[in-house]
Design a protein that fits this description.
The protein is mostly helical. It has one domain. It is built from 13 helices and two strands; from the N terminus they run αααααββαααααααα. A two-stranded antiparallel sheet has the order 1-2. α2 packs antiparallel against α9 and α4 packs parallel to α13. The relative contact order is 0.18. The N terminus is likely disordered. It comes from Rhodococcus artemisiae. This is Oxygenase MpaB family protein.
Length: 325
């Protein structure tokens, strides 16, 4: 197997001293931060965890599967904040990076890992970027080459906010597609952390659906989660399906595309502002004047916070909600 960062072909550079946040004129603002992106949760989680270093970190340090929904929902706030927090985005990015400082160790094969290894950290970012590309094409249809180049350049600008080395970042959209293919074919691994993401057999009700009767949930969960995993498998590159030993037929591919387009059309019926996650919506509201530029950032509601005994952990986003409006 190639080393975790050897597949990247970009030149080694240092981070810019004052990287600029993305703004409302970017395609990333237009397409990122929508609720429909929740459908890509298992895809993003499994793609990230197949990276050897990232998967080892999850296995050794994460308690994600104890509170799957809560962890996912609260994590979206700072993740989206790095794009939508305006002048405060660099600080949000520093906070996100800080959650990874202590995640390091040696995996079961004796390989050292650290969440802040340039190749490992960039892979996580690459999955967010590429999920944006494939989600737009699944929901709305093909992007033009010019749009892909623009989104690629924006994802580099976005990544600079973390203050990480840029040596793992491909130099162009074309180089990125080569990097992605090489990662899928030669670097990613089938591991426990990945299989845990894809195992939804014991999935609990989301925090906002605790009112839903548990006996009925247990009945609807199996077919619903099977369908969710089927949608996820359809989003994988063929090399990843081969790695995880999933079959996929031309008929399934056609049906999968039709479902994606139907979801995209249905999304257009939702009022524009409410297609966005609250953190992203607040970004749009600031630039439109709906709220003031210094309005406190929107944070996760209390129902998504970590268990009380974990709230002081440096690896958790656990905001003080005393001033939350």
């Amino acid at each position: 197997m190639r080393s975790q960062s050897s597949s990247q072909d970009a030149e080694s550079t240092t981070p810019e001293s004052d990287p600029l946040p993305l703004g409302p004129d970017s395609l990333t603002w237009k397409y990122f931060g929508g609720w429909r992106g929740m459908l890509f949760g298992p895809w993003a989680g499994s793609m990230q965890n197949m990276h050897p270093g990232l998967g080892a970190g999850v296995e050794d340090h994460s308690q994600f599967f104890d509170e799957r929904f809560e962890r996912l929902y609260r994590s979206l706030y700072p993740i989206y904040g790095v794009v939508f927090d305006g002048e405060r985005a660099p600080e949000t990015a520093r906070q996100v990076r800080g959650y990874h400082n202590t995640i390091k160790g040696v995996d079961k094969l004796g390989r050292k890992y650290h969440a802040l290894d340039p190749g490992t950290y960039y892979w996580a970012h690459a999955t967010f970027f590429y999920s944006l590309v494939i989600s737009v094409e699944w929901f709305e249809g093909p992007l033009t080459l010019e749009q892909k180049h623009r989104l690629f350049d924006e994802h580099v600008q976005w990544y600079r906010l973390y203050g990480m080395s840029m040596k793992s970042v491909p130099g162009s959209w074309e180089a990125f597609t080569e990097y992605w293919d090489d990662m899928c074919r030669n670097v990613l691994e089938d591991n426990k952390a990945t299989r845990d993401v894809l195992d939804l057999s014991n999935l609990d009700r989301p925090p906002f659906m605790r009112w839903f009767p548990e006996p009925i949930w247990k009945i609807v969960r199996p077919p619903a989660t099977r369908g969710f995993i089927w949608l996820t498998v359809g989003l994988y590159d063929q090399a990843v399906r081969d790695l995880l030993e999933y079959s996929w037929s031309p008929r399934e591919e056609k049906l999968h595309r039709l479902i994606g387009r139907a979801i995209g059309l249905g999304n257009r019926l939702v009022p524009w502002r409410y297609r966005y996650h609250p953190r992203a919506r607040a970004g749009w509201d600031r630039v439109s004047g709906r709220i003031t530029a210094n309005t406190p950032l929107v944070h996760t509601p209390a129902r998504n916070l970590p268990p009380i005994d974990r709230r002081d952990s440096p690896v958790h986003y656990s905001p003080d909600l005393s001033e939350q409006r």
